[in-house]
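Just wondering, does anyone understand these tokens?
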Amino acid sequence: MYLKAYPLVVRQFWGHIRDGVAPGEAGVAVGVSMATGWKWFAHAGGVRPKFPGEGPRKRPRMTLDERVAIEVGVKTQESIRSIARRLGRAPSTIMREINGKAFCYGRYRARHRFAAPWHGGWDPKPRYRATGAQARTQERARRPKAGKLAVNERLHDEVQTRLKDNHSPAQIARRLMMDFPDDVEMRVSPETIYRSIYGQGRGSLRRELHTCLRTGRALRKPQRRAEQRRGRIPDMVNISERPPEVADRAVPGHWEGDLILGAEAKSAIGTLVERASRFVMLLHLPDDHGALAVQQAIVAKMAQLPAVLRRTLTWVQAAR
């Protein structure tokens, strides 16, 4: 209930938890009591809940009109790239939609091909059908969905038995793939097992099974503490604070830098890209690609340019 009553406050609360703040302190930070913060944390089993409509999709769902256009294109033998250009989609997206296959647990499974009436009988070869693809997509997208361990009793019992034998979730996930190589329904990720134990109301694994885990914790702990957060650079200027002339590529002289690592991070090469012209310069790093070596390479390379082309440098910070 508290998710619906205070959605913004609860999101802020879990943001603090993600950063390593204790539940009580996170509660105070968002304007509730320490006891309420601990209650929210315990109710969710230490697992951040999913919020309705959280975040926009990076790729918008394909509409029925688009699927009808694809079906017409298939029937008229239009090329994949032509259909993609007409719909403003990637050719790979159209290909996956037409082929009707989804890669799942190491094999391809049929998705959007259906039989249909054909010459007084039934088409012997299933073909792409817009209405069938739309209906199946809507069915898969329905929420909320029961957890995998809640609907698959055989998988549920197997996981529960192995937990009682003191197997870790990671061991269980791997052993299931080895013991049931031809049964894709007997697959589960370690994260699903953890969430099934700690998340209340999922109806999959008994909460008391936390005692079978190596940690034995009744609540899940954040993976890192505030003082252990990585990727924070002292006095770092966020990329969103760049001047407008840098963001819109209107003026030359603004650069972006990145470091490309080789196998096992044993080798590296630096790149400098001018944002307006997209001109690229490479940094030679034969012996060392630490911070000081990269800095010296940047200074030496940028010194070859006139001052008007040396305005700013934005260094890409890799996600941790």
In short: The radius of gyration is 26 Å. Strands lie at 101-104, 107-110, 113-114, 117-118, 121-122, 127-128, 254-261, 268-274, 280-285, 312-315. The chain has a mean pLDDT of 77.
